[in-house]
Amino acid sequence: MITKYKVAAVQMTCVLGDKVSNMEKAIVFIKQAIQQGAKLIVLPELFSTGYSVEELDEQLAESLEDETVTNLIRLAKEHDVYISGAIIEKGDGEGELFDTAFLIGPKGLVGKHRKIQLWNGEKTRFSRGDTFSVFNTEIGKIGMQICYEIGFPEGARIQALKGADLVLYPSAFGLPRLYAWDIATRSRALENGIYVVAANRMGEDRNVKFAANSKIISPKGSVLVTAEEEEKVILAEIDLDQVKEQKATIPYLYDLDPIKVINNFSECLMSEKNV
What we know:
The protein has helices spanning 19-35, 57-60, 67-79, 122-125, 153-161, 178-192, 241-249, 252-255, 258-270; strands spanning 4-11, 38-45, 82-90, 97-105, 108-114, 134-137, 140-144, 166-171, 195-200, 204-205, 208-209, 215-217, 223-226, 232-239. The chain contains nine helices and 14 strands.
């Protein structure tokens, strides 16, 4: 397994509904990251379509076998890299759509994560996923979540308990909640002793302003690099041995009492006050 390598997060604007233009831009950034030695590159949420395309969701939706992911698989194979991002995915049922993160590598599609925690109007756009998966790769065990999910510690904790070394967050996180983004990105890393790679949108889609500030966070919760307010690629070298060291230094996962946590969590969910 490769334990030391560079990861990259792409921060970009998008043209609403223009897959060709957005893909061309994403490929330029991916190639920049590859030229700088990145082994893993993370794109923002709905990078190929833009975020605020509600009336075009069905028209723009794709399967993971369609053009967007296929083109990126070709690029990943050519350059021996891993690429992640999130698109509008067609489900199996009529009109069923998901906000779906994918992970592809030199051998093709590794896996996907369908967004479970949906923000605001997303509840009327997308169906919910149901699994916090972790994928075993030559560059470590990788989990994926999407944007708003970074504010829910349960998902990252589940993936950490499944052995995740890093969790990727393709995002279109809003500017008014930048304070939450700054805290949550660091918190998910520190409390689980994992790397967090959070690639966020910048710019504006109609009335939605994005927070930018893409980040790569160490297992100690320190910000290795951040993008602030510009279109760019950010890179940092990660060392998976630091994941093992941090999990031993502050052994949150080892000292967790899952039975008591589950019992108390279930009690809260069942009480009328918290439903």
